[in-house]
Amino acid sequence: MATLLHLSDLHLTGAGSPAPTADHKVSVIPVTNAGHRADLLRSTLGGLRLALENAGESLDAIIITGDITNGGQMAGFAELSDVLVALGDRLPPCERILVVPGNHDVDRDAEGDERFAGIRGLRDEGYLVGWLSDEEVSVHPAPVLTASDESFVLVGLNSSMFSGSKVAVEKDLHGHLETLRKRATKDTAVRVLLEAWDERGRADIARMSSVELGAVSPLLGAAGEGTPLRIVGFHHQLSPVGTAEEIKTFESILNLGYLRRWLASNEVDLVLHGHKHDPAVVRDHIDTDGVHPAHELTVLSAPSVAVGRGADAPVGQLIRIPAVLPRRSEYEILTLPAAEAGTSVALTRMTRRVRPLDAITASGTISGPDVDSTYARITAVLDRLQDLPTPLVCRVENGASGTSLPLAMPDIPAPGAERDVWLQTTIDWWQRPAPGSAAKFNHGQFLRAATRGRASAVSRIVAELKAKLGSSRALAVLVNQDTLHDDEAFPSFITLQFVLKSKQLDAVAYFRKQEMSHWWPINVVEVAGIQRDVVAQLSGNVSVVCGSITTVTGMPVRGHGMPMVSVPTLDLLVDKPGGLLEYVLPLFQRGSPSVDIEGLWSRALEDWVPGGELTEGDPRPVLGLKALADTLKVSARLHGASNAVEDLVRRLETLHDLNDGYVEKRREQWAEQARKGSEDVMKELRRVLAANE
């Protein structure tokens, strides 16, 4: 994650001309004794430094969108570094501080290049300064910053290139003006009128240079899901901010239509500006001519220190941008409140989360070239699944990539190299043809088991495709219609279809409900395995390769912690001949057991007993606990029971009854009792081991 600080309209005046922040309606307190703009900015940035330190964060970059000073005052530019230094060790280097000019950064009395002499001095100090004229485009470095983690690319544009310009006087008035200027040396009234004439003849024109826009376009790089968030900053507003009416000439950017087309064509995600002194977050829809696609972007207007506002009024904004799929992920905008000397800054105040309105939001479709890429895109929208259109369609272009779990999948109860073993054990369990005694159903019994003397669903799919390569009947249904609407459990995995076209076998799986962070990867690996099986069985008839895998989910949800996709160890052992004996027989040996029996039991409980956060589905053994208790009782009869062994059996039976009576509405109560019950089991186990020593 990268954090960007956005400041604007500082209007610094230098130490010799302090700008008060108090509204002096009565001249009682000397202006020099009251609060001043630069002092308030220093104390605020000092408070921000402490807040960032406490949060363990830093600033990746700073952008200042104009009006550093008033009327091009050199003292104001000189004061900027003295204000920013209050950030201390959180202050980025000068080359990562991007400054673009505002209309007040122009020296109106100067001509040509000297109009921007003050802000040009900042470039000499090492700041990254926006191009000040078209001629600078080929001379000075481009005003572009890329985040250190590549989460954003930031471009600074100059909307003030023609601010403070003099409006040309009509030729037929030139002679009359010269006559009046001569008279003004002797006539005060004429001099005052001419000064007013000159002032009214100035225009704060806001305009974008086509030369500048053309030069920065290729610097934004390619636009795509995995590319940096595209940010553009300039001084003047893109659209009205608030409802306040300001009556003036040249209120908006002259070539606004061209600029908006440029923003849409370059797929800009976020625009930062100042000028209006009011904070605002606006979602802008740029609908072009019907030939070019419409575009959505966010426009962020910066606040400013102003006379008479409260001490905690906002003076800046922080933007936190995630490193993973930044153009598709939610980013945060934190308003930076002013902080007087001795007060603190809270980064959690006035936080706004921005959710990009992207193709996923519009269509409910997520796709990627492989399992890892598609899963990364799913992860980026987990917090807003409820906002997406349903059914949610997730597509993996290369189904052959589904041989392992995504590297980013959380909560896998197996470290390092054991991931693959855990995955294979889990897949084998869900894909075995027999239901087994520890579950009412699994996927394999519907897909791979022969029923009523007929071949399995997978075999019949292969037969359909061999008989007719374009058949739409290569379809398996995983639900028994007789139990669909009664109390019997049945899979969320509903149907699986294969489509063979252009020698490529595509798979489509439909789920009535799917937990996306844990179940989706397992389901894709399952489907990929079946896809490989079908391809192998077709290979003798036609040359076929694995194509795409598409999951369609009617109700996508997000779970926290590994759900029932992770079959508890004790349930896995129920159908394994003698599987539970290694947990029981060492308890009846004299002396220390040859295996770490306490560790074995502990791991068998830890892989399902919930921690502090409940999961979606709550994996819990039922028959596994009962089988363990029964095995322990049989062994006790053969070897002689002790009180400790009998107590251990009772603890296991109590834990079994708890899981057997599980009700989702009382999950928190169940979780607490499960944790307590597992602790009791381990205490009794230690008593048994101690009795054998």
Strand order of the largest sheet: 4-3-2-1-13-14-15
Please outline the major beta sheet. 7 strands, mixed
Number of E-state strands: 23
Mean pLDDT, as a whole number?
85
Short recap of the structure:
By secondary structure, this protein is of the alpha/beta class.
What labels would you give this structure?
single chain; 693 residues; 19 helices
What's the topology here?
Blueprint: E1 2-7, H1 37-55, E2 61-65, H2 74-84, E3 97-100, H3 117-124, E4 128-129, E5 144-146, E6 152-156, E7 165-166, H4 174-184, H5 188-200, E8 202-203, H6 210-216, E9 229-233, H7 256-265, E10 270-273, E11 280-286, E12 295-301, E13 314-321, E14 331-337, E15 351-354, H8 359-363, E16 365-368, H9 371-380, E17 392-396, H10 418-431, H11 443-447, H12 457-467, E18 475-477, E19 493-501, E20 504-511, E21 514-515, H13 519-538, E22 545-553, E23 556-557, H14 569-574, H15 581-584, H16 597-606, H17 623-639, H18 643-660, H19 667-692
Structure description:
By secondary structure, the chain is an alpha/beta fold. 32% of the residues lie in helices and 16% in strands. It contains 19 helices and 23 strands. A seven-stranded mixed β-sheet has the order 4-3-2-1-13-14-15. A six-stranded mixed β-sheet has the order 5-6-9-10-12-11. Strand 5 and strand 6 form a beta hairpin.
